[in-house]
Prior knowledge:
Layout: E1 15-20, E2 23-30, E3 33-40, H1 50-61, E4 64-69, H2 86-100, E5 105-110, H3 112-123, E6 128-134, H4 140-145, H5 151-160, E7 162-165, E8 174-177, H6 178-184, E9 200-205, H7 214-222, E10 228-233, H8 243-257
Parallel strand pairs: 3-4, 3-5, 5-6, 6-9, 9-10
Antiparallel strand pairs: 1-2, 2-4, 7-8
Helix pairs in contact: 2-3
Amino acid sequence: xxxxxSTDSKVSPHRRLARGDGCNIxxxxxxxxxxxxxxxxxxxxxxxxxxxxxxETHCRAQARAFVRFDYQGHGASxxxxxxxxxxxxxxxxxxxxxxxxxxxxxxxGSSMGGWIMLLAxxxxxxxxxxxxxxxxxxxxxxxLMWQEFEPETRDALLRDGMVxxxxxxxxxxYLIARGxxxxxxxxxxxRAPIALACPVRLIQGMxxxxxxxxTSIRLAERLQSPDVTVSLVKHAGHxxxxxxxxxxxxxxxDELTGEII
Length: 261
């Protein structure tokens, strides 16, 4: 679910993490104290978005380690978007966690990034001390795309391998590949308990037109952690990038990092 369009406020160039076969992940990393923070962006979004940069600024002010990056096929990273999959992007997140961070980390996932953060935490539970989901969208390819498609759209996707969908969050329609939908079925999470025990904070706008607020409730029910809080913000939409909304995000992050708020 795309939702970030802001430009990067940093003037320093991004760095690149090699992923093999000539592929690479573009990233910004700030050194600092533990627990560190890793931001995972949304569908067709990038690390230059408002939330990513605001969180970096916040963490820098606390001398806290922070990483933001682009999945392959997104932003400044290599690869084509249409070749991307949920599993591939989760693998990118795990590579970032393994290579660019040390010690315990708090994963902050926005929209699709909320799904990716869960998959990364399941892959590296010993490295993740907390999760913060902003309009998290686990299983969106199945629940919010495939199951909502008209029969004609499903037929076109199966026949042509790709469909165009209108977007309220970008410069034009976005392309959905058949491979994205089919590969994602191996990573669906809301159909069974989710074996994560770390603290989780979920923030969701009730005026979100991309991810229903009920998704956060379903996620909270599935998580096995005893420490899960859902915050519903009545008039907030999907972008969740206005100053009062950013303040809610940083307050939740401070709670997870143990800062006094």
